[in-house]
Amino acid sequence: MKKEADRSEGDINISDLRKKWQKKHLHSSVKELLERDAEYFIHQSLSTPCLNVLRAAKGPFIEDTQGRRYYDFHGNSVHQLGYGHPEVLDAVKKQLDTLPFCPRRYTNHPAIRLAERLAELTPGDLKHSLFAPGGTEAVGIALKIARLHTGSFRTVSWWDSFHGASLDSIGVGGEGVFRKYAGPLMPGAIHIPPPGWKKNNNSPIEDPDYLEYIIEREGQIGAFIAEPLRCTSVKSPPDGYWKRIREICDRNKILLIFDEIPLCLGRTGHLFASEATGVVPDILVSGKGLGGGIFPMAAVTVSEKIKIPEESALGHYTHEKSPVGAAAALASLNIIGKKSFLENVKNLSKLATKKLEEMKKEFPIISEIRVFGLLIGIELEKHGEKAVHEAEKILYESLSGGLSFKVSSGNILTLAPPLTIKEEELSDALKILEQAFKNTV
Ligand SMILES: Cc1ncc(COP(=O)(O)O)c(C=O)c1O
Questions:
Q1: 287 CB less than 6 Å from ligand 1?
Q2: What is the mean pLDDT of residues 118-122?
Q3: What 3-state DSSP class applies to 343?
Q4: List of domains in the chain
Q5: pTM higher than 0.90, yes or no?
Q6: Atom of ligand 1 nearest to the CA of 139
Q7: What is the pLDDT of residue 202?
Q8: Per-residue exposure over 398-433, b if at least 16 CB sit within 10 Å of its own CB, e if not
């Protein structure tokens, strides 16, 4: 019997609705490409077999091989600047022509400049950085630093969280779809319910107090790792949560690690999402959009007070001080770091909120709308239950209309528009979504 896949991280690829959509929309030549993809790639629930084949991406759009364009409100969270931003492309091309790679033992100007910029732009006393070719590697580095600095291998993190797909990251992550078949995971990784988790709709567990309880039982904890707010489900801890966690961490010498991989660089209307929490983490992990939607690039930036033995090897990834990645990141920070850029995100956020509030009145299936900058969660419920089937139908209706996004936890439509989207494009995309609701519910 085929097991039902876990939908917590995103919509899955084995559903009947997907097959129906493909049958209706894809030419035989595209089907053939998908078959070749499926023949030679390892199958897994969040990628192969794939939905469709892309041939181009520009601005807020991705384009398939049949020439259909879709607003990309998913973009794996790399697309703060949309696709092919001219300033980023220009910086990358110039860098490719001069120094395309930097072997270990050497450093280079763009990498040094990026480390300086991160020290300037990240909050509080965050200063020293290490770069990595991907978010999950950066999370691994952060966990190693916490072990070395505190002498404790124990971590506390949220159930249902995602911090990357490598074996160390799924240990602190809490998503069944990654953990289920992995066998023994990292020792000492303790999980607590995410804020807002409710048993039978009763009062939420007071997680900060639960952290103290764990410390009493288990002894020294090295790190508390979490996203400042959950990106996929678009759920934020209640007011005061982070202040209380910060206070417990300080008192117990626990490092607070904020995983900002999908949230950094303007997504929430702040350059770093931590800025809205009222606390400064000891370690901030950034990634995804840091590479300007072009280059794999992530960074761990740590507080000045963190001390680790200089002889330790923490990252040492082949593409660590990538001049091309650093050039892409510097160009991106240049654009996003401008006050007017973030103000525009806030204005677009207001526009989206207004439209979505109207839709909430029109479609009672929408139980909640959560908006942080241009990260939007639309939660769907029917008779008090998750409206999983309807959410998936709305996704495929939207794709038919030219809008792509992610469905999280089965019933949350997660919209992450490029931050460079124009007002009229945002309105147009939300009209596609509205029409999808009209056709479905
Ligand atoms: C919160 C969070 N942490 C870590 C990662 C892992 O990043 P990467 O895919 O670059 O390894 C992701 C990726 O989706 C993420 O959303």
A1: yes
A2: 98
A3: helix
A4: 16-83+339-440 (3.90.1150.10), 86-336 (3.40.640.10)
A5: yes
A6: 4
A7: 53
A8: bbbbebbbbbbbbbbbbbbbbbbbeeebbeebbebb
